[in-house]
Amino acid sequence: MTESETIKENVRERYAEVAKRAQASTTASCCAPSTASCCGPTSTGDYAKKIGYALNELSDLPDAAQLASAGCGNPTALASLKEGEVVLDLGSGGGIDVFIAAKKVGPTGKAIGVDMTQEMLDLATKNAEELGFENVEFRKGDIEDLPVEDGTIDVIISNCVINLAPDKDKVFREAYRVLKPGGRITVSDIVTDGDLPEEIRNNPDQWAACVSGALDEKLYLEKIRNAGFERVKVLDKRDFSGIVKSAEVEAFKPI
Ligand SMILES: C[S@@+](CC[C@H](N)C(=O)[O-])C[C@H]1O[C@@H](n2cnc3c(N)ncnc32)[C@H](O)[C@@H]1O
Fold first, then answer.
1. Based on CB atoms within 10 Å of each CB, which residue in 24, 32, 93, 125 is the most buried?
2. Atom 8 of ligand 1, residue of closest alpha carbon
3. What string of DSSP letters covers 195-250?
């Protein structure tokens, strides 16, 4: 296996576990010892609330979609989604942002999620069926090689995923390829202010935990520009831990 394949396999294993745990928590009997938090009002969505989702956005989502939430912001809040737009979520996990986006773009629009972890796709598909969405689709694939046609997407969103990809240049080139001219990308992601210590950078568990793969903010923005995007802007930034931050970044494909 190449280094890149090893990183992806490690990431896949971690998020397969997150999906399985989210599913198990909602199917286990209420307040069984392993699911002691499942009865109270704080049972689900606590993490999602912390990272910027409004309560009314979460209230009609299945518990499993909220429990699988592993983002670091809420890109749907900043993407100015409009009725009829086609949205693509890179690394859609349990589907939380796809479902919120699908509501915003309505029946004339569409929200597509791409993820490489089968367990996450299974969970997201089950959640979509439960919600009865007809404008939602999940596809299996790698964000470095998107299973999406050229120039077909109005808006790309992504929540805490690009830092996990070994080749970020490829991710931004792919994002550029699939966007329509004038299309935009709004991502929440982990970046750093400066370089991470070598021992963290080389720790595979820290990579899967969204730390080691994070780039210095300046380099992250440069990679977006190098892919061809313009008007690259940091909309918001929050402290995560030490030099590790979460940033909301917007950029446009020229018309
Ligand atoms: C930190 S979770 C975030 C999930 C979701 N965006 C959310 O906010 O809950 C990362 C997700 O990205 C997926 N992922 C990581 N690297 C990927 C890649 N190269 N291609 C496709 N999916 C990837 C993982 O399988 C996982 O579901």
1. 93
2. 71
3. PPPHHHHT-HHHHHTTSTTPEEHHHHHHHHHHTT-EEEEEEEEEEEETTEEEEEEE
